[in-house]
Specification:
By secondary structure, the protein is an alpha+beta fold. It has 9 helices and 18 strands.
Length: 314
């Protein structure tokens, strides 16, 4: 009888108090106050189905060290967390998610985290990233470098490619070097002035290839072209720990130069926005956090970045 008496509980999604019944909780029901519609669960199921379509096994709700991970791929020692924007934007999520990642890495597993809006709006891009992490080639045309040209392309042309195939999207960078095949832009690497306070004179801001093509040595060739034209003393770039290991930077001659701590986005109404696009109005005297929270925004955190630096060889 006690199992049907309502309990006082704190919703893990929005941190408000609600009154579930113990019997429902035991059945896997009433796990939130109703503010979350279990979107994360459906995202996880979709991820499992995609991984299985690649011929790999995948496990839902993998238990490790007292934590549960959304998706586990045993054949690749990889756990994937599907970061629902509502569930992962409360005050506890930053610490909780960081501890889960550390537990996975400590146990010898690789870790990826996919934001809900990325999977919903740019699923084909995330699938391409995941194929690369899993070592599963996508159906593509393999081209010799001699069949492609590295040439300057316009900001508009470069950004159209990034919007189609890069998980962040447009770069609006000063220098854009395209990988061009038969007059078609199939890849691009872009450079601009560093977006963070930096001692480096250039930043590699974007790099992407249309997954329908593979061009061996494309990025080394593009970097060589940039260096020849602009004689940089150093180039800095960053790989996102949520999705990447940074191996491409090592292949083209960058060296690891340290770690960048986790950063955050603002979330409201199912939308994730970078903080740079939400600047405080002139004359505002309260903090950014006070302002955004008063407007109904909540923060969702990433897992930091790795900083990479290229310098000319002596």
């Amino acid at each position: 009888r006690s199992s049907v008496i309502p309990l006082r509980a704190l919703c893990p999604a929005c941190l408000s108090e609600y009154k579930p019944r113990l019997s429902d909780i035991k059945r896997g029901l009433s796990l939130t106050c109703g503010c979350s519609s279990y979107t994360s669960s459906s995202l996880s199921l979709e991820m499992v189905q995609f991984v299985e379509s690649l011929g790999l096994g995948a496990v839902l709700e993998h238990s490790l060290g007292g934590w549960k991970y959304d998706v586990f791929i045993p054949g690749r020692n990889l756990v994937i967390e599907m970061q629902g924007l509502h569930w992962h934007s409360n005050d506890l999520s930053k610490t909780r998610d960081a501890k889960k990642r550390q537990e996975a890495l400590k146990s010898g597993l690789h870790h990826m985290a996919v934001f809900e809006d990325e999977w919903v709006k740019k699923r084909h891009v995330i699938e391409s990233v995941l194929r690369s992490r899993l070592g599963v080639s996508s159906p593509s045309v393999s081209l010799r470098p001699s069949r492609c040209r590295v040439e300057p392309v316009s900001v508009a042309r470069a950004d159209a490619l990034y919007e189609a195939h890069h998980y962040i999207g447009a770069s609006r960078s000063k220098v854009n070097l395209g990988i061009v095949h038969d007059g078609n832009l199939i890849g691009c690497v872009s450079f601009g002035r560093p977006t963070r306070k930096s001692s480096h004179d250039w930043e590699l801001t974007r790099m992407v290839m249309d997954p329908a093509f593979r061009v061996h040595g494309a990025w080394s060739s593009a970097l060589k072209t940039f260096v020849s034209g602009y004689s940089p003393s150093s180039i800095v770039s960053f790989s996102d720990n949520r999705l990447f290991l940074g191996a491409v930077y090592e292949r083209i001659g960058f060296m690891k130069d340290g770690d960048v701590p986790p950063d955050y986005y603002w979330v409201k109404g199912g939308r994730r926005m970078h903080k740079s696009g939400l600047r405080k109005p002139k004359g505002c005297t309260i903090t950014e956090t006070e302002l955004r929270e008063s407007e109904g925004y909540r923060r969702i955190w990433d897992f930091g970045k790795v900083r990479w630096v290229w310098k000319p060889s002596l």
